[in-house]
Give the backbone structure.
Amino acid sequence: MLIDGKEVTSKFESLAPFEPFGLYVPSVLERYDVEDGVEFGYDTRNLITIGPYSQFAVEEADLKKTYEAIVPFAEYIGSQPEGGDNPAILTDFFAFEHEGTRYGIRFRYGKDDAATAVPRFLETIRTLKLVTEMK
């Protein structure tokens, strides 16, 4: 997997039993097991979260397609500062359907980390796959 212009190793990580998906996670990201799912990221504040869209508690009408690098992605539904007013932490949201359920992907990162976090996260979610066996 090519991350930050360098070839890095990656490992397939399943989101089961929480979600029916898995993805290849580059060695520059860590897995964080949380009470109701799994997140991947670095520096503990730069995170990818995947789950039912409703878990994000965000209104689509409040999101704006402001991040030009990800506007071309059909699944991109918009961005906003975390909490709606904290410019130091940004969030980008993507949505897709699977078997009648709407899923979301959230990128959460420090504003100063955007140039590194967003390309890493995009490369990671490009590998998202359906996992047919849930544990």
The chain has one domain: 2-130. The domain at 2-130 is CATH 3.40.1000 (Protein Transport Mog1p; Chain A). The first strand starts at residue 2 and ends at 3. The chain has a mean pLDDT of 91.
